[in-house]
Design goal:
By secondary structure, the protein is an alpha/beta fold. 33% of the residues lie in helices and 19% in strands. The chain is built from 14 helices and 19 strands. The strands form 4 sheets. Strands 7, 8, 9, 10, 11, 12, 13 and 19 form an 8-stranded mixed beta sheet that branches. It has a 5-stranded mixed beta sheet with strand order 14-15-16-17-18. α3 packs antiparallel against α4 and α8 crosses α10. The longest helix has 18 residues. The radius of gyration is 25 Å and the shape is globular.
Amino acid sequence: MFNGGKESNTFLMNLGFEIVGNTIGMTRILQAKLNKNSQLEYTSKQHDERCPQCKATIKAMLERIYGEVRPAHSLPYGVSYEDYANSPLYSALKEVYLALQRFRGNRDFIKTHSLPPVDYFIPNPGFVVEFDESQHFTACRKLALSLYPKDIPAKFNIDRWIQLCLEISAEDNSPIYRDEQRAWYDTLRDFAPIIRGLKPTVRLYSNDCQWCGLDPESAEDRAWFEKVLMSGMSNWDISTLFDPEPWVARIIIDGFWSKKPEDSVKLLNEICDIWGNDEEIKNIRAHFLMTCGGFLEFEWPHQVTRDLIGNFWNPNPKALSAILGAAEVALQKVLTKETLKRLARLTDYLTIGVDSSKTLVSTTQNYIHDPHVELVALVDTQTGQLYWTGKSYPTNAQQSGLVRVPDLETHFFSLPNLGNIMVLGCHDLTIFNNRNMDHTGSTRKTLKNSFRMLSKAKKPSIILQHPHTTHSSHTWAAAWELVRSELPSVKWFASAGSYIAEKELPPLEKTSVLIDTKQGGSIDFIVRTCF
């Protein structure tokens, strides 16, 4: 009956419940260490983003790296856009300010004569570090960020900050202009240092890491922290695990992924570097290299309207053709001749998740009403030939917006020396889950039965699934178990997904996810992101 968030929380509080926010975030478990018996120990405690020790640890890390650090430091900067009239960024600042005034009609939100203190100022080499808690991610902040010039230097991922504004959607109406005020001061903290000759402001998100778990005396932790600061949260570390005689290689994203073409092609090439030069795996060739769902994102084609789509469950073929065309253009930017040449030395086929842009990650609980599509491309690395399929079994929360791929035959491919293989989008695997089968509705039940009958007829030897997220080793367990019992032809199967979740997975659970989402050996490239 409720839409969630504040509406539901208010109802529950009126009944006497206490509401505690989920503040675990994407916690990096930094307490893992080897004890005297070389057995892994770790902690995974509930952690509050307002933890004072986190802020103290960040200060200590900055001091250990840069020397002097000034917390809560006041810089001599004005708070009116007119104070920056002689700057090339003046027009952009003015546009943000006027947009915030118009947004909700709160026009008088500047209440000081100078910019309120920044979280940390590092005099040498001269930059600001801001520690953003959830209250900063508001609709007003999203509006301001969306108006930043495309070429503004930034030491944080602006697109990701916009995404966090959409997901968190914080509100603070005490006073009524508080969100506009906070968004404007944050904008000035991004613009003013650049205008006044400092280096770009670094922003850290409070829930990206259990910051108090960092050890300022650890060279490894300091190196990781400095990399986060200098990369603007736009880099990654890659570790590799492999089994004897692997048939598949998987890219496992541990954290947020940007989905940008430039990051996608960069990561593919870095994996080629590692794979081609690592003494232990450089001579191992896999049949497939897999990515997660939504590894690459493209803009929705403007000519594809709801009227053109018609029925989302059985969309107009012209609409689907236009969407595939836009997806292929985006994919060709990633699969350059040089990248394909490098991949061809290591694997026969690449399967890559390609989504249209949308405001939320595809999960069972995220309601996505805007038109969108979730595709998977099978790429022959030798020839560059593309074969497309896409999600046919949407979640209940997205079925009003997902342009479904209705042709179930597109999920099956006959490949030389491998026989028939099945390629699935993330939720498509749930077709092999009997939970709520009798209550799922006639349309969904018919689709499940049709797909399973087709699978028995095709007798695939391999299944490749491309989830957007995998929060637990149990997420897909029931479906894979039914695959084993219903499809004895399947020799190998694998999922490649992301660990990004409402809470950090403990290290042992991550290991379980890797083991329980495959049958047969694999090379796993685990990409811990710093976005």
